[in-house]
Amino acid sequence: MASTTDIAPPGAPTPGTGREAPPAPHDPASLKVVPARHYARWAAAVAVIVLVTQFVHGLATNPVWEWGVFGDYVLSETIVQAVWVTLQLTAYATVLGFLLGTVLAFMRLSRSPVLQTVAWTYIWIFRSIPMIVQLVFWFNLSALYERLGLGVPFGPVFWSVDSNSIIGTMGAAVIGLTLHQAAYAAEIVRGGVIAVDDGQLEAAAALGIPRLRQIRRIVLPQAMRAILPTAGNEVIGLLKGTSVVYVMSIGELFYQVQVVYGRNGRVIPLLLVATAWYVVLTSLLSVAQYYVERRYARGANRTPPPTPLQRARRFARTLRAAAARRDQPVIPLKPLGDSR
Asked: Is the whole model's pTM more than 0.70, yes or no?
């Protein structure tokens, strides 16, 4: 009777012969590994590449785009000034809108039914009315209130001034954009605050931290992680939404482009100028949003992922190290037993 130690494993040399034994029928080592073939994925990739190539070829060869006219106007003084006006409108409406929206958000979270009702009504009204209607309304405010003043409520007015003298065209645009933006910003901030665990406030209250400091130092820094992605989208939408103020004849980007192609008839290249500037400004805002989100994510991620710039630097260092190793001379190895 043969002992178990005399049984050779599959594929091991047969004792006394020096040859490998044939593998077992179900031995995983004997199976041939074949990579999966994704034919549908390859076909989709080829189709996308063909479509993108065709689109780029059309951009380069179609004379209707008039790239020469585009180059003449994209950095012209008129267009650059219009871009500056667009940035001003976006900055004013963003800062003032989110400040007012934060106040409205905490009014909705208040225990006072009066504050809750007022905030909810404001948000309901200004989210229901289109932005262009609000802008036209504020542009014609002087028709409703010829003079604005200070005094006793329902009593005498001590000081008044003409409405047009303090609310010009630019002021009316900022007011309209701010009030419209505040309604959406309030819901964004409220959603971020709700996302913070209630235990944070309970712990802060147990430590005797004042309510305002709880909100400023504990609630808002944690809520920013939930606020920033949606707020970034809202600011980008506001940047493009400033084109609506063309109804007020303000010289922002889209209005100025309309004025120029109304004079020379070059509609397509001038619209391409506006498109290029909107793409550049949106890209810059997206980059800023990425780094702000990364900063506020430090509390959740102790080792945040590398930025695109850090990845590029690491890749460049890897290429330089590989090139340095390739340039080093190869030293032949001495054979075993050679003492020289």
From this structure: yes
